[in-house]
């Protein structure tokens, strides 16, 4: 395959902890992958078992003790019925604790959608068109609406010492804009079970998504080829795991947990089908791998002098360019900055800016501590330069605590018109070890059914008055049976707030047609810290600004009153 460059449209999101996945719940499909847990023994015993029962290969699972991935080339990759013969043989073996044939489910690639005065010199021919790096208004874009990566580069942060794992359909590691930054030791092909994650050729070049993601992040700079990666001195590892008929929980989990001692960032620009109809989330093993990564692996990644960050950006009609297998529209951006995942979230909240982002429906608002947010744009445009400068003096955030703020378990009918309004008053576990004083994440765990799930609308308001839209209308979602079962709707719009007080949940229908529904559960989960010194300073600054603005308003009112009085006196004379 010959490498090329592409011109993408808007930018899609990259992976982060806590990703919410949406997919369809279709007829079950069973694959040739098995989860096998042993009572005792190690990899030699597992390999012996696999050979005895005719399995083609076996891999140790890092996120399960005595857990192994068995795969069998003699079984169809996708079938409607379980392979009971293999399952029963495995389950009857006294050496085996558990054997589960993996179900197949869908995962789709993301992203196919439609220089200020900075002394940055690059000889890459398409660099000047990479508006998301430095936006001067090229391609009729908005000047200044970019990631401000140039400032981060000037401060010396270009991704050096960082390895990014691209979990996708493979990487063309022979591409001249990627070859020098390719980390072969950290790469693996989970679709073919070998260490060579090269994309499978198709006439329509469908398997080029991973290569473009890799180039967007790690394309070499100043080599006279295409454009520049956002972190052009970083290393990139290929984790090929999308190119098979169906995704399985074991492949997804294995990919997310592959070589954490080397890989600093895992990029997963994909998810279930975006059909707007159904709801799905990560399966059991993937959730376990995520938790294992957050609770154990993250603490192994702290390398002095290096920072690890992944940023995304939304476009305004202009285009991005980066490494690709061929020419086509594409849409993503990431950039690299040593901090924990929670440090990164705090820095993102504190340094992101409204810039020139605007929406007629969803207005910018301030939460209870003065942080500006928007339902569509979050806390705003990511600012690499500001993030790097703040990170230099950043102290790791304090321990995070989890508190069940309260729960309503009695079924409540949702009126066909108007809203169901429920309240929960919480002390946020005050007086206990898990007291949450400053919020980070808030989850509303909800179980609800209705005659049409797509017409449900759910909002939640914090004690400090911040309203979060948890669920808005989904026009294509006709579900009337499944609903949401203990679904953890999450908001970060209350970041830094004091959670103590009364929370309000509003549930209603947005369609004019008569609807029926029942809310069966609402549990409030609070996640945050017991100390956050910067929040107090933000509150003081915010209150000071409010006081100044009110003073200015009073002064204007006084001036107007004086002017009216003068006019009245003059008119009488």
From TrEMBL:
InterPro entries, per the entry: Galactose-bd-like_sf, Kexin/furin, P_dom, Peptidase_S8/S53_dom, Peptidase_S8/S53_dom_sf, Peptidase_S8_Asp-AS, Peptidase_S8_His-AS, Peptidase_S8_subtilisin-rel
Record carries keyword Protease: yes
Coiled coil ranges: none
Catalytic activity entry: Release of protein hormones and neuropeptides from their precursors, generally by hydrolysis of -Lys-Arg-|- bonds
GO BP, one annotated term: insulin processing
Stretches assigned to the P/Homo B domain: 396-532
Gene Ontology molecular function, alphabetical: serine-type endopeptidase activity
Name of one Pfam family that matches: S8_pro-domain
Keyword Signal applies: yes
Signal peptide: 1-25
EC numbers, comma separated: 3.4.21.94
GO CC terms: extracellular space; membrane; neuron projection; nucleoplasm; secretory granule
Localization per record: Secreted
Entry keywords, A to Z: Cleavage on pair of basic residues, Disulfide bond, Glycoprotein, Hydrolase, Protease, Secreted, Serine protease, Signal, Zymogen
PANTHER family for the chain: NEUROENDOCRINE CONVERTASE 2 (PTHR42884:SF13), PROPROTEIN CONVERTASE SUBTILISIN/KEXIN-RELATED (PTHR42884)
Family the UniProt entry places it in: Belongs to the peptidase S8 family. Furin subfamily.
Physiological role: Serine endopeptidase which is involved in the processing of hormone and other protein precursors at sites comprised of pairs of basic amino acid residues. Responsible for the release of glucagon from proglucagon in pancreatic A cells.
Protein name: Neuroendocrine convertase 2
């Amino acid at each position: 395959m010959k490498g090329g460059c592409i011109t993408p449209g808007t930018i899609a999101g990259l992976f982060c902890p806590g990703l919410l996945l949406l997919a369809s719940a279709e007829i079950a499909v069973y694959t040739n992958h098995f989860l096998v847990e042993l009572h005792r023994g190690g990899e030699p015993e597992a390999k012996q078992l696999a050979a005895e029962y005719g399995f083609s290969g076996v891999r140790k699972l890092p996120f399960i003790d005595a857990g192994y991935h068995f795969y069998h080339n003699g079984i169809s990759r996708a079938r409607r019925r379980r392979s009971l013969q293999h399952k029963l043989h495995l389950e009857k073996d006294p050496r085996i604790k558990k054997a589960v044939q993996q179900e197949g489910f869908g995962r789709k690639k993301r992203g196919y959608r439609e220089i200020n005065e900075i002394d940055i010199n690059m000889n890459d021919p398409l660099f000047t068109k990479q508006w998301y790096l430095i936006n001067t208004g090229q391609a009729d874009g908005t000047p200044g609406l970019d990631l401000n990566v140039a400032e981060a580069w000037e401060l010396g942060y270009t991704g050096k010492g960082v390895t990014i794992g691209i979990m996708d359909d493979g990487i063309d590691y022979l591409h001249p804009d990627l070859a020098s930054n390719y980390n072969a030791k950290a790469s693996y092909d989970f679709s073919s079970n070998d260490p060579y994650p090269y994309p499978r050729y198709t006439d329509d070049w469908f398997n080029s998504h991973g290569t473009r993601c890799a180039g967007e992040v790690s394309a070499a700079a100043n080599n006279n080829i295409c454009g520049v990666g956002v972190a052009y001195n970083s290393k990139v590892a290929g984790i090929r795991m999308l190119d098979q008929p169906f995704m399985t929980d074991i492949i997804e989990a294995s990919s997310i947990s592959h070589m954490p001692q080397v890989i600093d960032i895992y990029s997963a620009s994909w998810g279930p089908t975006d059909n707007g109809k159904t709801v799905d989330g990560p399966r059991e093993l993937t959730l376990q791998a995520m938790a294992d990564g957050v609770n154990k692996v993250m603490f192994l990644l702290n390398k002095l002098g290096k920072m690890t960050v992944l940023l995304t950006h939304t476009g305004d009609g202009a285009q991005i360019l980066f490494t690709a297998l061929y020419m086509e529209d594409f849409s993503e951006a990431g950039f690299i900055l040593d901090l924990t995942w929670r440090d990164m979230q705090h820095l993102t909240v504190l340094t992101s800016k409204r810039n020139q982002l605007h929406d007629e429906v969803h207005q910018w608002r301030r939460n209870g501590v003065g942080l500006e947010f928007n339902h569509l744009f979050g806390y705003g445009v990511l600012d690499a330069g500001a993030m790097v400068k703040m990170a230099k003096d950043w102290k790791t955030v304090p321990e995070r605590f989890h508190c069940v703020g309260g729960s309503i378990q009695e079924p409540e009918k949702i009126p066909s018109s108007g809203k169901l309004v429920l309240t929960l008053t919480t002390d946020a576990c005050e007086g206990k070890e898990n007291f949450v004083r400053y919020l980070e994440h808030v989850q509303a765990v909800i179980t609800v059914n209705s005659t049409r799930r797509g017409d449900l609308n759910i909002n939640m308001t914090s004690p400090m008055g911040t309203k979060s839209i948890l669920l808005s209308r989904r026009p294509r979602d006709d579900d009337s049976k499944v609903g949401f079962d203990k679904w953890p709707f999450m908001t970060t719009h209350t970041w830094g707030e004091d959670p103590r007080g009364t929370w309000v949940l509003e549930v209603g229908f947005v369609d004019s047609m008569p609807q029926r529904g029942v809310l069966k559960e609402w549990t409030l989960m609070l996640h945050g810290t017991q100390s956050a010194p910067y929040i107090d300073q933000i509150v003081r600054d915010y209150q000071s600004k409010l006081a100044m603005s009110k003073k200015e308003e009073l002064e204007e009112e006084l001036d107007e009153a004086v002017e009216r009085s003068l006019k009245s006196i003059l008119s009488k004379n």
